[in-house]
Amino acid sequence: MSQVDMVSHQGSHAVNSVSAQALFDKCQALARNLWWTWHPEVISVFRDLDPIRWRQLDHNPMALLNEFTPERLETRAAEMVLLSRIHHAYRQLKKYMSNHQTWAATHAGVLGARPVAYFSAEFGIHESVPIYSGGLGVLSGDHIKSASGLGVPLVAVGLFYTQGYFRQRLDENGLQHEEYLDTRVENVPIEPATDPDGSPVTVNIQTRNGPLLARVWLMQVGRVRLFLLDSDVDGNKPEDRSLTSRLYGGDERTRIRQELLLGVGGVRALKALGITPGVYHLNEGHSAFAPLEVIRSRMEEDGLTFDDSLREVARQTVFTTHTPVPAGHDRFTDVDIEEHLGPLRDGLGISYDQLMGLGRVEPQNHGERFCMTVLGLKMSRYANAVSSLHGHVSRRMWANLWPWRSEEEIPIGHITNGVHTPSWLAWQMRQLYDRYFPAGWIYRMGEPEVWQGIYDVDPGELWETHCSLKNLLVAFVRRRLSRQCRRRGEGDESVEAARNVLNPDFLTIGFARRFATYKRANLLMSDIDRLVAIVTNEHRPVQIVLSGKAHPKDEPGKALIQEIANLRHHTNLQRHIVFIEDYDINVCRHLVEGVDIWLNNPRRPLEASGTSGQKVVLNGGLNLSVLDGWWAEGFNGTNGFAIGHGTAHVSDEIGDQRDAESLYHTLENQIIPLYYNRDIDGLPRKWISMMMSSIGSLAWRFSAHRMVMDYTKHSYVPACGGLSCDMTKR
Ligand SMILES: *Cc1c(COP(=O)(O)O)cnc(C)c1O
To answer: Same domain for 386 and 368?
Structure first.
């Protein structure tokens, strides 16, 4: 009998304690709404139930509870004095779910009857829910968390990946290996989504080559319902059953089929669920097929022509583009498009050429492949990039779509990305802010006023809190590194060295992200002698923690990781530079909470926004970044450090050289002296003022609350109003 059977068996028969069952049910309810992921007081309840298993189980409360019987849970909760905390958390959740006095109630009432449908190929909500790979997913997760907090009526649509993204392991040569683990459904807080009659929802999409089926799961993220399509169902061909098993894993055909499921399947699923969205928000091109299905169903139901229906649907559609390089956009062949969109095209009553034209910059150019971003732009009246600079880049990149307009008139605006404050703010910092900020500030974290409290914080206290977080980071790094060494079968000596790596007193730099070459993870290594001199300085030492995955097919990215991982054999650097395997939300959280400096040095302007530096801001770390993405608008000269001057270079080589020089120079002449300049109390006063300036000027602005308020005001409400708010229709 498996653990789960045992629990449910005992749950149904052996339990004689009503209170034990009631307690167990409350814990289940807490675990089943991802609201807990941004409530430290609830996280600590789960952790205290069994701290060791909590860590071993990737902080997954579903998995943890599956190891408990109601009786054992009750006993354990009593031992650990958790009972009142569980009851309190449960009451808080109930209160949150039934509270209607939200920001959106006064600012977005029009969305009440017809919610926003937010489509994204990935959602990064927590490390225990592996349906994300990186930045795009975490952004979607943060978006829906803030929508929940603000009370914006929104349902989200994504895919359920049964293996998620890969686990990264480095071998003794530093080479990346990918491991895929099957997710156990009973360890994920999902349940079958049901229609108004209570039957599980499935969708069926016809292709020219047979049907594609999917079931639909429901995941509750605070007030937001996230619907996830899963192709692992009876009736699908074997290769289709594994279609949604991995993120970005397959070939082009897998990809178009995944996107067909997400877009067309997603719209069908909402309809079957009885949900009529007022706005469709396509987060990146992956879901750009969705409006085609909406157009088709409008034609069918309202008797509209294709053109009229397209016009109506576009007025309701918001499209966000995230990719500043032309090669980064999904493109499909006409054969793939006709196979997968053919039956839908019949329903739209348009020709093959017309359909292909919707995905081409020049509709008649038969040499052009079908581009999902082009489709997204043509299907939406509200299009935006994700930072001001990215807006410029996008308007230039897609100018040919509107050849009669000047560049400034290209209808792509921008809404800069932000992060979900309560998810990324360390608990210790949160407690400090709670004492200085206005009451209820956490509900108003997108407003500048509440953050002005930072200037009243006692500098010594801020510094101490930061140092305690840095200590936790060092402990985390030691734990992970010694585990890495043991797994590779290295000797006791090397495990012992890993246990003692890093020093909490040293200036600590973090660098973590996807290892794509444009992010230039090795820029810091471009002059090894200079780097050695910097980090091993006897009086002012520096240490660097790196982490990140390369896409399985990205060989240059993997070579970068190898180059860095092998620095651990470099006698002078090994104690100063460490690489943590398997970057994920958990690793990210430890890093952004504990570092002094967050380094970001992409090749400008290839970083559309970037968000990890925003997470660092919340916790008092300072940014050292190329003036790209969000930092190009965030940096004001006193709230962090810039690499370069935001200028263009004649070639990548020259740009790399100049940026490397600027990076070294800024470290040597500004950052290191500032950090080690201590007053009589041992405090780096000027550094601390910079921390305050960073928090005060950036935290609200680059919050997901501000971002979702912007989307609501500038896109959602107008897009819904475009319907002349005809709530009675249908
Ligand atoms: C925040 C986050 C990112 C975003 O990275 P950027 O390089 O800043 O875009 C990526 N991965 C994870 C796991 C994150 O938490």
So the answer is: yes
* Residue of the CA atom closest to atom 12 of ligand 1: 134
Note whether residue 610 is domain-resident.
yes
Amino acid at residue number 28: Q
> For the segment 410-445, what is each residue's pLDDT rounded down to a tens digit?
999 999 999 999 999 999 999 999 999 999 999 999
What is the rounded distance in angstroms from the CA atom of residue 255 to the CA atom of residue 568? Answer: 37
686 and 647 in a common domain = yes
Q: Are residues 26 and 135 in the same domain?
A: no
Claim to verify: residue 638 and residue 694 sit in the same structural domain: yes
Q: How many separate domains does the chain show?
A: 3
Is the CB of residue 135 below 6 angstroms from any atom belonging to ligand 1?
yes
Asked if 603 and 660 touch (Cβ cutoff 8 Å), the reply is: no
How many whole angstroms from 57 Cα to the centroid of ligand 1? 22
State the pLDDT confidence band at 16, using cuts at 50, 70 and 90: low
Residue type for 313, please?
Answer: V
| CA 513 to ligand 1: nearest atom | 7
Mean pLDDT of 107-117: 93
Query: Of ligand 1's atoms, which has the minimum distance to the CA of residue 611?
Result: 8
Is the confidence at residue 15, as pLDDT, over 60?
no
Which segments of 386-486 are extended strands (E)? 413-414
**Sheet strands (E) in 82-166:** 116-119, 154-159
pTM: 0.96
Contact 30, 36 (CB under 8 A): yes
Ligand 1 neighbour 612 (Cβ under 6 A): yes
Q: Whose CA is nearest to atom 6 of ligand 1?
A: 610
Residues 305 and 434 grouped into a single domain: no
